[in-house]
Amino acid sequence: MSMETAKVERLRVFPVKSLEGVDVTEVEVLEGGTLKRDREYAVFDADGEVVNGKRTPRVHRPDLRLEEGAPVVSFPDDKGVNVANNRERAEELFGDFFGVDATVSRDDERGYVDRRSMGPSVISTATLREFASWFDTTVESARRRLRANVEVSGVPAFWEDRFVGHEAPSFEVGGVRFEGVTPCGRCVVPSRDPDTGKEKGGFRERFIEKRREAFPEWADEDAFDHRYTVMIIARVPEQERGGIVGVGDEARTV
Q: Which position among 81, 89, 127, 171 has the lowest Cβ density within 10 Å, counted as fewest Cβ atoms?
């Protein structure tokens, strides 16, 4: 175990589901249990199906930034739109780009997270380094591929695995308690170059092989249905929602 202080290294939210994330210095836990501005907007087609990374690699191409808290999306041909202030134009541009009849919807109470009863995703910086070494890529590329909300430094690789399973502990950050719920099973997105969307051949097979080799002794094996997992999905108890988590806050096992 590292003698460094475990702390929040980064906080990242994804204002438009499946598009690029943005780093924030602090973030509020919403009453719904998720993080403010995380997956606040989503793009849907005419059948009400979400346009996401499982469906198309084109989600990797637009850029996204926050301007006064509102997501501004820029497309490869330099067309940009403030999604919050110009929803109609955003739907037009998303529709043209993805080739669908697009609707942009907002949920500022919980966001369009995949697991509606759960909360933020958590990973350690050391896990990102380990993942990057498996695929000869950078730590920042690993961040963009794995798309975690809360990154904790000063702990070993797969530190987060200890918080799922029978009688698992929880951890506290800035007075906010996080309870591990489930390992995060992965889809095709981590196999893609986050800039080009190009998929790496043999990714899943190598991932599973290396994950098995590196599986930590402190993890509850019964909590893992398979080894195509990395990072965890956590839950913030209802009584602690509304709290603020910040970069640099100590992460303490409780």
A: 89
Model confidence band, residue 3 (pLDDT cutoffs 50, 70, 90): low
219-238 residue pLDDT tens: 999 999 999 999 999 999 99
- Tally of CA atoms within 13 A in the half-sphere of 219 that contains its CB: 24
Token pair for 210: 């290396």
User: Cα separations (Å) of 46 from 82, 97, 102, 103, 236?
Assistant: 22, 15, 7, 7, 34
- Establish if 1 belongs to a structural domain: no
Percent of the residues in the chain that have a pLDDT greater than 70, as a whole number: 99
Q: Give the pLDDT confidence score for residue 77 in this predicted structure.
A: 79
Query: Do residues 184 and 241 both lie within one domain?
Result: yes
Q: Which two tokens stand for residue 55?
A: 């469906």
